[in-house]
From TrEMBL:
Residues 4-141 form the Aspartate/ornithine carbamoyltransferase carbamoyl-P binding domain. It comes from Lactiplantibacillus nangangensis. It catalyses: carbamoyl phosphate + L-aspartate = N-carbamoyl-L-aspartate + phosphate + H(+). It is an enzyme of class 2 (transferase). L-aspartate binds at residues 77, 161, 213. It comes from the Bacteria. Residues 147-292 form the Aspartate/ornithine carbamoyltransferase Asp/Orn-binding domain. This is Aspartate carbamoyltransferase.
């Protein structure tokens, strides 16, 4: 395919293919493009990890990265996202990586059948396929398999595109998913992917404790005013006391950015069981895998070089 927008596109074989490719890049695989290729990263929502690691991945694959700043672009004059992509396509951009606050913003772009390639770097509370693949890489590196692993996804489920992507892939790959956090943030649509339990019932039995950031930018003003970080941490967070009950082999994950002392005790971010910074490193290699896959699809890279 010419686009990667949702984990629904991936079979288990696809996920394992991306993991293998990311590991090859991690072990030093380099590639040569057949002609100059151009990427543009269009971030309509703030980002540190995803934006930086896509740009690093594109550069390491030999692509040239054309800057785009929404605030100084003609989007401010009312130009639509579709017309923006038509424009950069006409100018010669091969790959657009887009993050946007609107759920499924990418659908009209796919319907328009643009010849350029598209990777979704996060849509509202919809999907975050590159985060999900880097999380699968991190889990696979740790345990060597997914079958029967117990994974708790804990926190602001309602707003989390990471939860929505990971619950699908983890189920598909044979892991057992649990959810925790405020009950009002557990939507009915999560039920088919895992059981909802209090965090105290989960800490002593999980292989992966995956915390989610409380997304204050998506909460209403009333809910933000009513929010108390200390109360949240004690009721729903991974406190030091709860972390002490994790099995020895269990790992702590968080897509980050982290609200230290809210969903996770600050000291746990750098604890021996934390894989939070490894997730970020893996993110760059996984994005190299995703972008190189697209480059092969576009005939810009010989598939044999990825074997
Ligand atoms: N995990 C993640 O998507 O982080 P950024 O918002 O900083 O890209």
């Amino acid at each position: 395919t010419n686009y990667i927008v949702s984990v629904d596109q991936f079979s288990n074989a696809d996920v394992l293919h991306f993991i293998k490719l990311a590991q090859a890049f991690k072990h030093g695989l380099t590639v040569n493009l057949k002609r100059p290729a151009f990427a543009m990263n269009l971030f309509f929502e703030n980002s540190t990890r995803t934006h930086t690691s896509f740009e690093m991945a594109e550069r390491r694959l030999g692509m040239q990265v054309i800057p785009f700043d929404p605030k100084t672009s003609s989007v401010t004059k009312g130009e639509s996202l579709l017309d923006t992509l038509r424009t950069i396509q006409a100018i010669g951009v091969d790959l657009a990586v887009v993050r946007h606050p609107q759920d499924a913003y990418y659908q009209p772009l796919l319907d328009a059948d643009l010849p350029m390639s598209l990777i979704n770097a996060g849509d509202g509370s919809g999907q975050h396929p590159s985060q999900s693949l880097l999380d699968m890489l991190t889990i696979c590196e740790e345990f060597g398999h997914f079958d029967g692993l117990k994974v708790a996804i804990v926190g602001d489920l309602q707003h989390s595109r990471v939860a929505r992507s990971n619950m699908v892939l983890l189920n598909q790959l044979g892991a057992k998913v649990y959810f925790s956090g405020p009950a009002t943030w557990f939507n009915d649509d999560f039920g088919q992917y895992g059981e909802y339990l209090p965090i105290d019932d989960l800490v002593s039995q999980v292989d992966v404790m995956m915390l989610l950031r409380v997304q204050h930018e998506r909460l209403t003003q009333t809910n933000n005013e009513a929010f108390d970080a200390t109360t949240y941490h004690q009721r729903y967070g991974l406190t030091l006391a709860r972390a002490a009950k994790l099995p020895a082999q269990a790992i702590i994950m968080h897509p980050a950015p982290v609200n230290r002392g809210v969903e996770i005790a600050s000291d746990l971010v750098e604890s021996p069981q934390s894989r939070i910074f490894q997730q970020m490193t893996n993110g760059m290699y996984m994005r190299m895998a995703m972008v190189s896959h697209i480059l092969v699809q576009r005939g810009l890279l010989d598939a044999k070089t990825l074997e």
